[in-house]
User: Fold this.
Amino acid sequence: MLLKSHTSPAMTPFMLMLAASLGEVATAIVRVPFEIVKQRAQANLHLTPFKILKQTLQTQGIGGLYQGYFNHLSREIPFSLIQFPVWEGFKHLWGYCQDRKVDPWQGAICGAGAGAIASALTTPFDVAKTRVMLAQKSSSELKVNMWQLFGIIWRQEGIRGLFAGILPRVSGVSLGGFIFFGAYEKSRATLSHYL
Assistant:
């Protein structure tokens, strides 16, 4: 077994980061094509998702469905690298302050806070990913790397451009984090009584 079940507590954040990163790489294989179709449907209201899928495959091949795959990962992996250790840190601190493990509702609040921090910090990656996924095949946004795209956005739109959509992103991710981590903590607590 690569990772032992009784790993040093000092290694826990690194294990969380590695596991989250590997999970993101795997899910992006499925998620990115759906994101491509969804975002193009949002930008082209007169086309159905099926027509967008067909058009993408005809004009760009299967690679068109993965346009922005690495940009997607460059958003998701830093997000996970921040969110999971911050969540664990918040839970540890809260548990330390009350001298016991956190309750599921407290874990949910920690998850909402961790999601808010991670989503705020990674918003520029989200902006860049969205621009690449929506870009036409001949667009200059497809011909530069992520850091160059940050520079282009910065020069053209400033800090507001890099953090466009931050409030809805943070709000949605925080609510999702509250629900996800609350359900996770409650399920884990319930299952631990039976397993």
User: Anything to note?
Assistant: DSSP finds seven helices and no strands in the chain.
